[in-house]
């Protein structure tokens, strides 16, 4: 059973916890920092795959696989090219002529997009309403530091609903 709330209680709750001018207002902002980033977008990799004349299903899988391989190369152009060659030759069985054309296209894309992937390191977060942000470095440690609650409690004692009389 939920306790009925009055309009005044709802307004008070809003003013205390949600109103932008309230000093007790809380926001949650989550910023993910990728471990590896590619200099070339997924769209550009898809365009590169389309030039190889693969089937639609294979092309979609190849784009995802190449994005992962190229991101793992750590911005080293030679490692990226070698990963591209290996994947096209061994996994997709593409001819050597098409591989050379794809590598040349990759080098052009890489040169055009070097340093323009749009990632801003250490960007200042938006306004925090006068509060300081709490940075979680290790999720496991953070979760371990949280206190456990006793869980939900009923408004009325459940024994009120027990029927201990015998039924015939």
Structural commentary:
This protein is an all-alpha fold and 168 residues long. The protein has a domain at 42-113. It has six helices and no strands. It has helices at 7-17, 42-50, 56-72, 77-91, 96-113, 139-145. Helix 2 crosses helix 3 (56-72) and helix 4 (77-91) runs antiparallel to helix 5. The radius of gyration is 28 Å and the shape is elongated. Mean pLDDT is 77; it is low at 116-121.
Protein traits:
168 residues, single chain
Q: Quick recap of the structure?
A:
By secondary structure, this protein is mainly α. The chain has helices spanning 7-17, 42-50, 56-72, 77-91, 96-113, 139-145. It has 6 helices and no strands.
Radius of gyration: 28 Å
Shape: elongated
Order of helices and strands: HHHHHH
CA-CA gap between termini? 30 Å
Show unreliable segments.
116-121
Helix percent band = 40-55%
What structural class is derived from the secondary structure elements?
A: mainly alpha
Q: Which strand-content bin applies to the residues?
A: under 5%
Number of helices: 6
Q: Characterize the main sheet.
A: none
Total DSSP E strands: 0
pLDDT averaged residue by residue? 77
Task: Reconstruct the topology from this structure.
Blueprint (H helix, E strand, L loop, with lengths): L6 H11 L24 H9 L5 H17 L4 H15 L4 H18 L25 H7 L23
């Amino acid at each position: 059973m939920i306790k009925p709330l009055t309009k005044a209680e709802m307004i008070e709750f809003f003013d205390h916890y949600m109103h932008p001018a309230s000093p007790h207002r809380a926001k949650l902002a989550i910023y993910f920092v990728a471990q590896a980033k590619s200099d070339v977008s997924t769209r550009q990799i898809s365009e590169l795959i389309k030039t190889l004349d693969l089937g639609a299903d294979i092309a979609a899988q190849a784009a995802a696989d190449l994005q992962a391989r190229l991101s793992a190369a750590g911005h080293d152009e030679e490692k990226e090219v070698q990963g591209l060659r290996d994947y096209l030759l061994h996994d997709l069985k593409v001819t050597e002529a098409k591989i050379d054309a794809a590598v040349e296209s990759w080098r052009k894309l890489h040169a055009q997009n070097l340093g323009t992937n749009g990632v801003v390191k250490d960007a200042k977060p938006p306004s925090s309403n006068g509060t300081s942000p709490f940075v979680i470095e290790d999720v496991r440690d953070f979760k371990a530091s949280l206190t456990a609650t006793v869980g939900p409690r009923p408004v009325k004692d459940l024994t009120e609903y027990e029927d201990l009389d015998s039924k015939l």
